[in-house]
Amino acid sequence: MEIIRKYFPDLTDQQYSRFEKLGPLYQEWNEKINVISRKDIDQLYERHVLHSLGIAKLIQFTAGTSIMDVGTGGGFPGIPLAIMFPECSFYLVDSIAKKIKVVEEVARELGLKNVKAEQKRAEQVNQKFDFIVSRAVTAFPQFVALVRTKISDKNHNALNNGILYLKGGDFESETKNFGDRIRIYPLQEYFEEDFFETKKLIHLALKNA
Asked: Considering its fold, how many domains does the chain have in total?
């Protein structure tokens, strides 16, 4: 939990309280339904919560922004972002029902009224959102093909509406065909821990795409 305070020292008491509750909640739920690898659960705040909040270092979503988290798994990056941006709406989808159950229960325990979770594939979603977020659920071009029609063309944030994709390793070949609409941000520019050395955040602006 101290790692959250380190990088986000200006949160409200309610935000800190919710982040503090995440650890015990995920420990408890992970024993019933394995949504986070056993080796990662002890590094939940660094490898899952802070990793998710890399998005919050790049953009401060304006009130009313709508965000869909595709392939949310146990609720990342959606749940940490929903805590960070209580005036935005988050729609978390995953094809696996037991993972969505964990998301729903965690959101309920935290009192997150801005989170809706459903067992659904991205291609089954009919509405549009300002941003689509995800943590490397598939190769980037395939992900873009899945969600490109789900993005609204009415911008009201500092970044153009589009995809915010957390990914590790070398993926230049996956992003080379998107021209000047793509930006890649190394997370080590925001976080000094070794875990973030190879982690990146991709922003693909899809307006007029």
From this structure: 1
